[in-house]
Write a sequence for this structure.
């Protein structure tokens, strides 16, 4: 299984594909956050790691005090680093050290206005990836933005993922797939009504 603490080491190289992907994700988070929020913005990060995406952007966001949300991370070391990052940034975000594949991890945190699904779809089975995307209406408020990532190693699943989002009531706003790298980053807006959270399992990490 992957060492999810050591996995973050690639961020030290600003030219690595992981750092490049992170920069694109951060740009999409900035775009997804309202310029002048009229109400509380609810954020949710699935398998949040150390919060290098959302927490970093919120440090610079003028209305960060209006952002509430939950960041779910299973690895205890990453979860602790995440707590420290949230505290240092003075953010009102809840860090849950738990299994993001279990829907109970989202009790009281949904429907969300911004959902980060980064580093997830490439680490689960294709069947679980489909289940995750089709379940996004259970986590999203009307008009919510979802930012997701997936590698395009053959066989490339991203065309099907984009179709699954469309079938689930999402409109694609962006899909970035650099020709010189295998990663891709997408952003979609939910145009349907939120669905009940319910109970069940979304996924299990396969590696």
């Amino acid at each position: 299984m992957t060492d999810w603490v050591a996995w973050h080491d690639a961020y030290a190289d600003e030219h690595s594909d992981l750092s490049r992907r992170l920069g694109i994700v951060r740009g999409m988070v900035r775009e997804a956050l309202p310029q002048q929020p009229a109400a509380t913005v609810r954020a949710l990060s699935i398998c949040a790691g150390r919060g290098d995406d959302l927490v970093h952007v919120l440090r610079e966001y003028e209305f960060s005090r209006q952002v509430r949300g939950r960041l779910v991370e299973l690895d205890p070391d990453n979860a602790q680093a995440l707590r420290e990052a949230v505290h240092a940034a003075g953010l009102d975000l809840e860090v849950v050290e738990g299994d993001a594949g279990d829907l109970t991890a989202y009790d009281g945190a949904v429907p969300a206005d911004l959902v980060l699904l980064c580093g997830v779809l490439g680490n689960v089975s294709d069947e679980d990836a489909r289940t995750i995307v089709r379940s996004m209406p259970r986590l999203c408020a009307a008009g919510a933005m979802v930012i997701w990532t997936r590698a395009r190693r053959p066989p490339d699943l991203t065309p099907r993922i984009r179709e699954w989002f469309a079938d689930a009531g999402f409109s694609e706003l962006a899909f970035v797939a650099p020709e010189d790298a295998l990663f891709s980053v997408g952003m979609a807006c939910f145009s349907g009504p939120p669905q009940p959270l319910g109970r069940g399992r979304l996924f299990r990490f396969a590696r």
Summary: The first strand starts at residue 41 and ends at 46. The mean pLDDT is 93. The helical segments are 17-32, 54-60, 76-89, 126-135, 158-167. The chain has one domain: 6-32+39-190.
